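Z., the sequence and structure:
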Amino acid sequence: MHRSLASRSALALLFALALAGGAAAQQAPGAVPAAPCGGDLSAFLEGVKKDAVAAGASAAAADEAFAGADIDPKVLSRDRAQGVFKQTFLEFSQRTVSQARLDIGRQKMKQYADVFARAEQEFGVPPGVITAFWAMETDFGAVQGDFNTRNALVTLSHDCRRPELFRPQLIALIEMVEHGDLDPATNTGAWAGEIGQVQMLPRDIIAYGMDGDGDGHVRLKQSSPDAILTAAKFIQHLGFERGQPWLQEVTLPDNLPFEKSGLGGTMKAAEWFALGVKPRDGNTAFGDLEGDLVLPQGRMGPAFIAYPNFKIYLEWNKSFIYTTSAAYFGTRLSGAEPYLKGMPEQGLASDQMKALQTKLQSLGHDVGEIDGILGSGTRVAIQKEQKRLGMPADGWATPALLNAL
């Protein structure tokens, strides 16, 4: 697992868990579990109630929250059968950053202009950044999930796969019930317990929730102003710096040191500009900031400089494709032109990617699980082998590289 579920949104959670391959392992024989789990459901809920009361919640709120609570087999099924995210950047971003979504997003930014202005003034987060997450998470609230939130969290807390992650969310849900912000019998959301138009877990709602419409409650499911301001406060918490860019499309010369591309580099944007990398919008004002050259499909595809604010996208979600698409979406809503698709070299099918990962692993590289996904570890390994073989080290997996190995 890349990051605690306590600060992850619904689709982000799905992608990140998929990338982690089902993540947390079962407790080792004889090990003491991090949190009580399993066993009789009534006894389990009594234990959670005791912890919640010790944390300051009322017994009455816990009783209300758990009245009628039950295990949802569909949640367990979804948890056990998480899909694997294998689309390319062009495939995923073209589908998610559609013209229809851009049009609706701009309408929403106009409709809630006062709320977005407050969000930017108080938290430094531009409207386009918030709106892109809003679109990608739930299509502006249209698709929020139909799992009972209380039962989803009861199920995942009672299950012994990751109780230490979900039990605190269940206790936070009791606090939401006590505040009058959630009806445990009727509130629905994602299978992993995320709630509302920007899909946040209860602990994050408690910590960062904002009453945007002035009704005295934080209801991210029903209230767009609440969702907008809460997302802004949460994004600020993740480290977004006011007035700085997050992603900028660039064009490339042929003779770059591509082995220096990728996330986690040590170059400043100005150093890339000096090597002939050119921002398409012509803006080089942020050259003193750190800048990673991001090539989602290699040097022949779309190219971007990722600035320090891009890290908040990685905090929201560890899927490189989701992250880059969400950041690109934010730039489009902020006035950027559509990216240049380029002509990326042919990539690898899933079985070919697994074969490549196996070869890379045999050469001593840490690629993580052999899962057919072009993740960060595989990209780094590819760059090292490309450089060794005298190929442009852009981190893109191709049949030519597979054959060369």
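The longest strand covers residues 247-251. The first helix runs from residue 10 to 20.

Let me know what you think.
H.
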